[in-house]
Queue: 2 jobs
Job 1
Amino acid sequence: MRTIELSEVTAKIKSMFIDACENIPNNVLEALAKASEQEQSPLGKQVIDKIIENDKLAREKHLPICQDTGVAVVMLTIGSEVVFHGDIYEAVNEGVRQAYTEGYLRKSVVRHPLDRVNTRDNTPAIVHIKMVPGDEFRIDVAPKGGGSENMSLVKMLIPADGVEGIKKLVLDTVFNAGGKPCPPIIVGLGIGGNLEKSAMLAKEALFREIDDSSPDPLARKLEEELLEEINRLGVGPMGFGGTKTCLAVKVNTYPCHIASLPVAINIQCHAARHKSCKL
Amino acid sequence: MIRISSPVDPQQIRQLRAGDTVLISGVIYTGRDAAHKRLCELLKRGERLPVDLNNGIIYYVGPTPAKPGRAIGSAGPTSSYRMDPYAEPLLQQGLKVMIGKGSRSQQFKQLLQQYGAVYLSAIGGAAASISETIKKCEVVTYEDLGAEAIHRLEVEDFYAIVTYDSAGNDLFEQGMEKYKK
């Protein structure tokens, strides 16, 4: 058995959120640079260049890339041989509390969706725990902005809708969202499972690296085709028209009921902030 | 690049066209969902607004807290469509320019024509760069709303793109039509 101190989890969560909000991953910057080269609209290219300039400035001056420092999404992968004493959820929330209050990040969480009073420390986080064999303890974090999350959806398609139905849903969703989710976007697509599983698959898809591709040939084919088709929509950077609406499509799948074809679309803005670490 | 000073000249605002890029200097007020709701409730009750919006500019933003030595934290635009239901009462108070990101309703576009106003976009997510053009920031009212409080900003060369003009032109529609394949 391996013991993990929860104080270490708290400290790690704190530093990871501050780091994520100020430092865009290198592979996201590379994807933006490539998009700038390929963008055919002069205004679109100007917009991408200003985004790149912003991301570099944020890194250099330790400023948040975007004022929407998001809801704190945390995925913990915990090996069955790991032990800890106490409340893991509270350890995570304490890290989030410290990051957002001491790290000059915006508090964007309200205590109740109907009375809408701000909790003033960005808690509670949204925590997902996955159990695996062994003694691994892995933390993945993402500050997730509201503008792109608002453009996301789950739809229960039927098997007859097939790949064409999935594509139409994605293309309609991205087109109707226009500039709202801050394109160029990343699309996380969860296909299969059931209602809640598909949403989780889509979120997990967004936690993948921007430059990877699915090991599953069917999913990979859909990723490639959808990326090309989305970029033909004409939405462009910030919706002003252009050929780079999307930087990457990520498809994650799971077995499902004979009657169902659940599809979840989770949209990620160009500020694709996430960090990972192993304790 | 067109220079605009605020409070704005209504004639200059009417001449702006979708696709123009502008640099704004002067005073702009911030406001998002919660502050808009309160302003409109005041007007409904026949009370005066706590800020003078005549020939004014509202920027839809909820900044991060300022780090020591800086006027404001990161301050990029939020999605504007959520403020559509509150636009008309504020246009009636003389508001001429709204700055945010993303598309808005058809009805909102008609209001711009009716009131000779414009909708500008700042670049979503370019919040650190934008903060460099904000020289001063103070809370005017609704401090309890935190990042959503109404702030008075003094800006210099604040970059924005004319997205809907007062003649009914829409940069989103024009741009998407041009690059759709």
Job 2
Amino acid sequence: MAHRVITGSLLREGTIAYLRVENGCRRWIATLGEATHVADKDAAETLLAEAIADVEANLIVAPYVADIRVEDRAVDGITMRERIRAAGPTIPLPSGDRRRGARGDEERRAA
Amino acid sequence: MYQYDRFDHQMVRERVAQFRGQVARRLNGELTEDEFKPLRLRNGVYLQLHAYMLRVAIPYGLLASRQLRKLAHIARRYDKGYGHFSTRQNIQYNWPRLDEVPDILAELAEVEMHTIQTSGNCIRNTTADHLAGVAVDEIEDPRPYCELVRQWSTFHPEFNWLPRKFKIAISGGAQDRAALAYHDIGLRLVKNDAGEIGFEVMVGGGLGRTPMIAKTIREFLPKQHLLSYLEAILRVYNMLGRRDNIFKARIKILVHEHGIEKIRELVEADWEATRDGALALRDEDIAGFKAFFAPPPYETLPANDSGLAQQLESDPAFARWHGNAVIAHRVPGYAAVDISLKTGVQAPGDVTDDQMDAIADLADRYSFGQIRVNHRQNLLFADVRQSDLHALWQALVDLDLATPNNGKLTDIISCPGMDFCSLATARSIPVALDLQRRFEDLDHLYDLGDLTLNISGCINACAHHHAGNIGILGVNKKGEELYQLLLGGSSRNDASIGAITGPGFAPDAIVGAVEDVLAVYLERREGPEETFLEVYRRLGDQPFKERLYG
């Protein structure tokens, strides 16, 4: 069944985020499966309007309504683009999905 | 290579400080995204599918080992441990945080690097023949002129907000290895009847949704007028280029709509008024730039190393790599070496932080501390002693960087595609990896001869799919991927635009379609020496279409 979620990119990190509304509080989370999803188009537009507040709060960039598919409680994007956004690149990254930060150079020197 | 002077250092440092302030103002809300976007783009920062992407300029593809180590360090510290070399001879990082980009820029500035001219509607990083200075067919080294163009174009106040981005490539070889015909301006160093060296100037080439081959606007331009003539072209484009429609804003459309004769008339008229002004280059100006690219201290060596001959005879795997990856050099006893980044395991053009460090070490040991990036997303050591080739090969084998597929079907140009790019309509990398696995048998690969295959994940054609002998274009059909096949493209002296064969293929059918095309080639060629492109041009597309679509 087609549902809708609100998604965008975190301003500071640039990573993908989905809107979750719980007890009237908005949170931006990384997992599509935990996002708040609605079936009704108008409800999705209402959610998006609420998300604009987080644009103005410098949390999120370019939020939009994305169509998703919900089957047997499993949630996934309908388009290939949204499926890749939700699951990450479909190819393995050359160094694995790692971010070593400042420790990386120390590790290399130790090696 | 070029060394920054105090003005360069100051300019780049000030740019870093300026962007640091802009990022801070964006994060605290003083700048909206609409206000910030053009500023970040001017510093090579895109917002892509999963994260920000940072594009770092590698002027004309030339890197010092200390710069490559810095790129490795940035990959390790600020990204996910790898970088992606692009067809514009630049490097891209796919996962930086916005709040860390100013620190990255500051680190780049330490080694005379930056992200200026990697995005936005300005004159982009000038590209060049990767064999500049060492090619046996070279008329003159293009790098001094690339650097001249870089200095002239960086922050040029008149051309900072052009109708659209503007790309220049320069080649000094008889054979075009820089895809000149597909640039807004292509400059080919040529010799006239009097024996003088100057430039053939081509204008209006490009790919994207409207691929066009550049037309010659001037057969011979004396070198001293290079900058004044470029300025005349840019001025005409800036005045007349269409700003009303982004899809018609490139200079190729202007040339197409007005005709090359009219554009030539306008450019020459402008140039006549300015040619002897401040931009006229004196011999000593050019000599000063040439000094930055003086040959390294070559040893006097025999033309053919005797030890190499023995190694080739006794080590078949080395001989196979040598026959493919080693390129003739103009200096006796030396060779250039292609380092394939098309391993079949990593995305074309990807290289890890540890590989970058190791390559930098090898460059110091075997190639005067310099590395080059070519527009086919590979690296190159330009100056290797023949006597060092075997040791270098062994080191590259250990790094998984000795795949001998230079110029072969698996030497695929691929854009990041929908795995990373927000503009893409289909994935490119998985198709490239599938093809590389299907054609990993080297005997079969070599039997197919020299053949280029380019894959783009959208109509913007970042991977030059129109210019591949075989091109693949990924498109979106009702939310799912479909791959169109193009045949007959070339980016060399015989530049031609590939033609679409017909309806597209599903992701699980595109590799088979390529196999069908190659089966026709193998059946219909007149001998192994007749290349795929020659067969296609001789037969036309009909036999290929019949096989593909019955």
